[in-house]
């Protein structure tokens, strides 16, 4: 049984449902009832409700794609900053497909401090020394050699992607590779670096004006304008 | 005991014109410090507290971090210009250090620190104007700032004070009643869970007066809680629209 309505704003301690219902997100159980842990919105899905927080740092979930910076080279892997309050760990076994002899090969030959990686969260275990384990053995992840990284607040990532990817598909029309990390870092790579600058300002604009009506249409118009300018060689 | 300059209670009306069970005007706004991850400003009458939360972030120095939970640090401070007569020295006094600890212990039961291992959460509370009940105003402000920062909380903690003036139980002490009253009972209350996180008491109270005061405190906290919800709502309805569009 649910005590909330779709899109309702909820606060810490508010009752959401009885424990026989399906509730996901930042909630806890008290006295046979799900209560919220955050200020958030209630979203109704087919198989239960999800609490979407409206503020906060990035909290990693298994399966998230993140953009991170290498901050340390350790004995058997790398420490990666993924904009969370805890450091993430990328073990050698998850970074390379082949076996390496750690005694003869320094790890810096693969990744060094300051390098950018797009990685997938393999596991989150808060009891570990490094609670976040990353992997590069997936599709569309790996070390980043070129391109630009733009940072936005993690709570606005859903807006940047849009309903069923509508906003992201609009941005793709410029003809670039875009990967949105769930941690609020967006990686862009274009053939022309001027396109990257254009896209970066556009993403910042989406972050700042995400509440203004008809944003997707205006962004689409701006991209069209830019494309014609580019064809005429004006940009 | 010193005699107050004005009678504290006359014909059931307090020196500032309030009824015994009446709060001063409560004003709350959320998100007032743009540099912080979360912030709130709370006024009970002229008493004004600003709270700012930073974190969770990695603990430095690292040896002070805990492997299974986060560390919360609270700093309560009164601005030099916050007091009525003499300027307060900006150095933290014994009293301020104690209140910092009291606030931390009143907030800890509400916060899921086990969700933030090896990290820290810093809470700064600044009293801009002090006119009694500063510790409970700080508690409300700090818990709202923590909620604004998106930190996992079981419930908001609302602070209210109750006092004993001329044998009568009164809600929300002002500076005068705090100074010349017979008793003081600051309370931290979680309105959803109906549990207390802070209960201090001084003065001589009868059992009846204490129970009456506790009931009054719960009523006062529920009144403040509604205003706190409205303040959060004001900020977050616009953000909800931002994320999902209209």
Automatic annotation (TrEMBL), chain A:
Alphabetized InterPro entries for the sequence: Exosome_RNA_bind1/RRP40/RRP4, KH_dom_type_1, KH_dom_type_1_sf, NA-bd_OB-fold, Rrp4, RRP4_N, S1_domain, S1_RRP4
Question: According to its UniProt record, where is this protein located?
Answer: Cytoplasm
> Would the keyword Ion transport turn up in this protein's UniProt record?
no
Instruction: State the GO CC annotations.
Output: cytoplasm; exosome (RNase complex)
Which domain of life, per UniProt? Archaea
PROSITE patterns given for it? S1
Pfam families given in the database record: ECR1_N_2, KH_6, S1_RRP4
Q: Which UniProt keywords apply?
A: Cytoplasm, Exosome, RNA-binding
Q: Name one GO molecular function term.
A: poly(A) binding
Q: Which CDD domains match?
A: KH-I_Rrp4_prokar, S1_Rrp4
- Can you tell me which family this protein belongs to? Belongs to the RRP4 family.
Subunit details: Component of the archaeal exosome complex. Forms a trimer of Rrp4 and/or Csl4 subunits. The trimer associates with an hexameric ring-like arrangement composed of 3 Rrp41-Rrp42 heterodimers.
- The entry's protein name is Exosome complex component Rrp4
